[in-house]
Design a protein that fits this description.
The protein is α/β, with parallel strands linked by helices and about 240 residues long. The chain folds into two domains: about 1-165, Response regulator (Rossmann fold); about 175-230, Winged helix-like DNA-binding domain superfamily/Winged helix DNA-binding domain (Arc Repressor Mutant, subunit A, Orthogonal Bundle), CATH 1.10.10.10. The chain has helices at about 35-45, 60-65, 85-95, 110-120, 130-140, 150-155, 155-165, 175-185, 190-200, 205-215, 220-230; strands at about 1-5, 15, 25-30, 50-55, 75, 100-105, 125, 145-150. The protein has a six-stranded parallel beta sheet with strand order 4-3-5-6-7-8, sandwiched between helices. It has a two-stranded antiparallel ribbon with strand order 1-2.
Length: about 240
């Protein structure tokens, strides 16, 4: 397989098979902002050899589409209702390991990038990046490599150094896995009583976990917990 890409502002990437015929690279888009999603679709379809099979409004709709569509690549936002782009990535990697995932997001923090790569994504691109960089990201992933936005790639040297030494990335979490589970439900609007029923634990246990998280995170009110959950991509 080969790829040809121009370097002008009208960059185009075309993929060819061993017989010299252009291969169609199939893509599904997932973003809950319709206007933005349609704009991305127009950009993608300007690149020869790329085809958008479908669009999804959220992660659950995306997983439903994957039951009967077979894309080569999914381009998804991190923050979507129902299930986050990171959780969707984990599900795709588990259920459809042959499908690649490119995360397209507004979040510039290295921490988000680390979470995305740990979930198994093949690329991380910012929504503010150029059309040229979108084409470059798709081409890179198409060739079997990982693409990281130029805005963050310089800060990832430690991450990849630790990976090459079979060490876990430094992603420090002040809260426990159980607290994280409860925090996710809080961010989804569940009451303490509903969380207790959902997890099969006592109301007092939920309240204790909530109080511990408030203390650990320096939160003054529930809105602070929800903001933390969103910032950490738990929802």
């Amino acid at each position: 397989m080969g790829a040809e890409c121009g370097s002008s502002s009208n960059t185009s990437c075309s993929f060819f098979n061993s017989q010299g015929f252009m291969e169609t690279y199939r893509i599904i888009l997932a973003d809950d902002h319709t206007i933005l999603r349609q704009g991305i679709r127009r950009l993608v379809e300007e690149i020869p050899g790329l085809q958008v099979l479908a669009e999804a409004n959220d992660g659950l709709e995306l997983l439903s589409l994957l039951q009967h569509l077979n894309p080569d690549l999914v381009i998804a936002d991190i923050t979507m209702p129902g299930i986050s782009g990171i959780e969707v990535t984990r599900e795709i990697r588990k259920l459809y390991p042959e499908i690649k995932v490119l995360i397209l997001t507004m979040h510039k923090r290295i921490e988000y990038l680390q979470h995305v790569l740990s979930a198994g994504a093949h690329g991380y691109l910012l929504k503010e990046d150029s059309h040229d960089e979108l084409a470059q990201a798709i081409e890179t992933i198409r060739k079997g490599r990982i693409y990281i936005t130029q805005s963050l790639s310089a800060g990832m040297s430690e991450y990849f150094s630790r990976l090459s030494n079979n060490e876990k990335p430094l992603i420090r979490e002040p809260i426990t896995e159980r607290e994280k589970e409860i925090l996710r439900l809080i961010a989804e609007g569940k009451s303490s009583r509903e969380i207790a029923g959902s997890l099969g634990i006592s109301l007092r246990t939920v309240q204790n976990h909530r109080a511990n998280m408030m203390q650990k995170l320096g939160a003054k009110k529930t809105a602070d917990l929800i903001k933390y959950a969103v910032d950490k991509c738990y929802v």
